[in-house]
Amino acid sequence: MNRLRIKHVTGFRYDGDVTASYNEARMLPVTSEGQLVLYANLEVFPNSLNHSYVDYWGTQVSSFEILTSHDELSLTATSLVEVRPRDHRERHLDWAALGTEMERATSYVEQLVQTPPTAPPESVVALAREAIASNSPCDAALAICTAIGEQIEYVPGSTGVHTTAAEAWSQKKGVCQDIAHLAIGALRSVGIPARYVSGYLHPDPDAALGQTVVGESHAWVEWFCGDWRGFDPTNRIDIGDRHVAVGRGRDYNDVAPLRGVYAGQHASTLFVSVEITREA
Predict the structure, then answer these.
(1) For the whole model, what pTM was predicted?
(2) What is the pLDDT of residues 165-178, one digit of tens each?
(3) What is the number of structural domains in the chain?
């Protein structure tokens, strides 16, 4: 078991004063399988009234507006989470049984529909079809996600938030968001429900207690083959006690940490920093 303290600072600096902004933040984890949230708080500057709710996909959302003139919007999300190793038990489910299971809830069917960011190119669909030829749904899903992770080079800054799976595949490099989109697109193309997970990954499994390290937002996937099973295709590892989930959705657009609009003619610059401390 790991107890992780996470400090995520993000926001926008404007080239001049803007008169108002309207925003949504998805930066605080909620208690779910494998993780217990002990503390979670979001500070917004300039001060603002904050309305919190849980969205359709189960992610905690903080909605707020700032109606005074400002040249910077800054958010600091601090959370303390106990994370336990996940149980990735083997499931013996054939394709017919998977079809029967999916009929039981719309949440499975909804995660079969491709979105613009996840739509895979034909070569990725061919990779996925090859994987299912001699595998059960669960084994095929693992093989697909592993293959995607092996064929895409992780290169920070090589893509942006609007890059599609097809664009990342064409250049064979991207960030965790791109690799997750590609894996999801491949899984959906062969009838395996898959969803996007945003959160954090402690980068150092050997970090000492009390050591603060530089981290970053992370993304991985979950697929359904009898139950939801998580996997990190970027690092080609199972979801474990270094992963803290924040949000789930169809793709990145459902779980973006911060989005909004502002009134003003000045350009904006995004800033982000993440610090993670192992406390137990």
Answers:
(1) 0.95
(2) 999 999 999 999 99
(3) 2
